[in-house]
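Problem 3 from the worked examples.
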Amino acid sequence: MTNHEGMPKPELPAYRLGKRYLFLIIRALAVAICMRAASAIPAEHQDSTPQEVFDSMRQSFQANQAKGVHARYEWNLSGPNGGQWWIDVNDGAYKMGKGKIDNPNVTFVATDKDWVAVSNGKLGGTWAYMTGRLKIRGDQGLARKLGQIFP
C-alpha cells in the first residue's frame, strides 16, 4: 500500500492491530455493561446522591444472575456527597454497605457528581471511563457481571 505521495505506508502486523482493537472494544464494553448496574435510579432524580443510587440498586438485584458469583465491589467517590460504598455478592445473595470492604475484586473511582450522572444516564459510562472521569480497577470480567446482577 502507498500513501497519496506514492510512498509505502508502514503497516502494523495484522495480529497486533487486531489485538489492540479487541482490547479497546472489550474495555469499552465492560464499562458500558457495568454502568447499566447503576442506571436503576429513575431519570427524574437528576440531583440524587450516591446513596440514593445504591439504595435503588437494591431493588434491581437479580439473584439468578448472581448464582456462582463471588465478588466484592467497592466505590471510592470524592466530592461533597462522596464516600465509600461496597457490595459483596456471594452465590446468589448480596450484602451492601457504606465504607471499605477487604480485598475488593473491582474498585470504581469517580467524583460523586460523575457517578450520579453516569447512573442517571446524563454521562455515558464509556465516555467517563475513556476520559478518566471513571476509573475501574481490578477484574474486568466481574465488572461486566455487575450489570447483569443489578440491571
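Problem 4, a separate protein:
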Amino acid sequence: MITSSAKFGSRTAAVAGVVAALLSASPASADSAAGTIGVALTVTNACVVNGAQQLQSNVGSLGDINFPDQPGVFGNVDGQLVGSLGTVQVLCSPGVSPQLTIGSGANDAAGKRRMGSNGNMIDYRLFSDASRTSELGVGSRISLGTATTTPFTVPIYARVTSAGAVLAAGRYTDTVQVTLAW
C-alpha cells in the first residue's frame, strides 16, 4: 500500500523535476520577420540667381547699370551690369543648359533701347563683351553652356552717347526684362 507521504514525496519530486527542466531549457524566442522602408525624393532641374537659396519664379532685379553723370553733350560712356554679388551669377542643376533672354525695355522704340527722362529719350546699347562688339539686341539670348556645380558669371556691358545732340538735364532710366530658361 502506498502511503500518503509517499504520494506527496513523489509529487514533490515530479514538480521539482519539471521546474529543473524548465530552468535548464533555453529561453523561448519569438518568431521575427524583416522588412524595408522605401525612401525617395524626386528632384527637378532648377536654376537660381545671385546666390538665392531656393527657386524663384521672379528673381527681381538682377542688378543695375549706372553710367557716370555727364554734361548735356558727351561722347561714348560705358557702363557694366553690377549685381548683388558683383556680377550676375546663375547656378543650375548639373547637366542643364540655361539661357538668358535679354528682352525689351520700358522705352524701346523700333528695336532700339532707350532711356527716358520726362519724355526725353536717349539711345543706349547692351553688349555681352567688354570690347562692346557683340550687341545684345532686344530678344537676344545668351546661352550659358552646360551647368556644373559652379555658378555661371554673366557680364553685361552697356554704352551710351549723346551723338552730338544736347540733352535736357534729368535722370534717364529704363528697365529691361530678362528671362532665365533651362
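Solution to problem 4. The mean pLDDT is 87. DSSP finds one helix and ten strands in the chain.
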